[in-house]
Amino acid sequence: MNILFASAEAHPLIKTGGLADVAGSLPRAIRHQRHDIRLVIPAYQSVLKQAEKYFLVAHLELEGVTQPVRILAGRLPGSTVTVYLVDSPEHFDRPGNPYSMKQGAVWPDNAERFTTFCRAIEALALDNAGLDWQPDIVHCNDWQTALVPPLLERHATRPATVFTIHNLAYQGLFDWKVFKKLKLPTDFWSMEAMEFHNQFSFIKGGLVFADWITTVSPTYAEEIQTSEYGYGLEGLISHRKDNLTGIVNGVDYTVWNPGRDLLIPVQFNARSLTHKIENKLALQEHFGLPRDEKIPVFATISRLVEQKGIDLILGAVPGIVKQKAQLIVLGSGDSKIETGIRAAVKAHPEQVAARIGYDEALSHHIEAGADIFLMPSRFEPCGLNQIYSQRYGTVPIVRNTGGLADTVTDTTEETLEARTATGFSFSGTTVKDLATTIDRALGYYRQPELWQKIVGNGMKQDFSWKRSALLYLELYETVLARREGAPVAETA
Length: 492
Fold this sequence. Notes:
The structure is a single chain. The chain is an alpha/beta fold. Helices cover 38% and strands 17% of the residues. It has 19 helices and 18 strands. A nine-stranded mixed sheet has the order 3-4-5-2-1-6-7-11-12, sandwiched between helices. It has a six-stranded parallel sheet with strand order 15-14-13-16-17-18, with helices on both faces. It is globular, with a radius of gyration of 23 Å.
């Protein structure tokens, strides 16, 4: 198959979150299955600085764009995956991250920026860039690429489209004045298309017009059909449930492998867990905490926002302190939550430590050195840290939602007996719910023989991208087979 994979970011070229990890890893895994998958992302300023080996392959004249858009081609670093960069300087050659300025405010022209990106993807998908290559499938991701399915729907002959929701909370909503600037077909502003409560919804384009919708875990696929998680789109998603699939994200075990990880002090595996203790002692020393292998170390690596349940962790600090355990936090986000974390560090300097910000190497060390990972998210489409934690022998405590429910098996007498227990989960949303689960986990931690069983079960889990890639390929084949029997759309 020929596949065009469209994303607003892709690791290692540009990353703000989990979408970049998916876009940097899934195409590689599909390429390994001998399919011609090509990645397309915007040519951000920071990406162009790394793009020495990218060369010009096309100029595009796009509707609503004043200057010609260049298409640059190269390889995704460390792979044989072709990458196309959509080079529109007026839209992407600027400092800051893909969506916001250095000060944190979103770029005011994000609608125009990503409309340009989608129009360029449309041109590539129809082989209008003169590259003599056309995809069978265009796989779009999140709201920044969600205009592609409705744009392609207007052509009599087009590739099939798949649209993946990574987080329904981010929808790309803009008012009528902005919509008029985009020079899109006027019928896009209708309830049957992309009008949503008197706003223009990018994401609705993918939900209405894509041949198939996926999201990043089976449980999240169910959750977004409810009012609690659907953000007003639950009716539409339920209407399309026969064309909706949840596939758990994979992880790159060449990067997240404690046996080969050069970012941690001492490498280890399931047969050399004594080396995990050395990582723990080094982690305690790094954060200025008392070095003691018997003290249970809790950790979290996260955006510090309410969605991630960080307020619940702050509420659980007194109980953690009372149990003579330690807590390490890495992340940044909401200023009130950051202030709360700093206050907890000041109040309990020998038991609570934090680094406000992000550090990739330190995140690896934390996964290797901690005993228990806290991830009490209010919602979590997939999540990756609970998967990393299991491979690094760090037992996750998660809220029973989304991908957390699909990747962590709660520890009970039955799951221990069945050798499936890999962590601890709870369903409520209160500090008490988390605190009770922490106490339950510590009860097992103080029984080393049982604890080692949970650790061992987790380290054996396989959430590799190969597994996920095969599921996506099976889905692509299903979508193509269905389209062969579908009526041809009328030309716009």
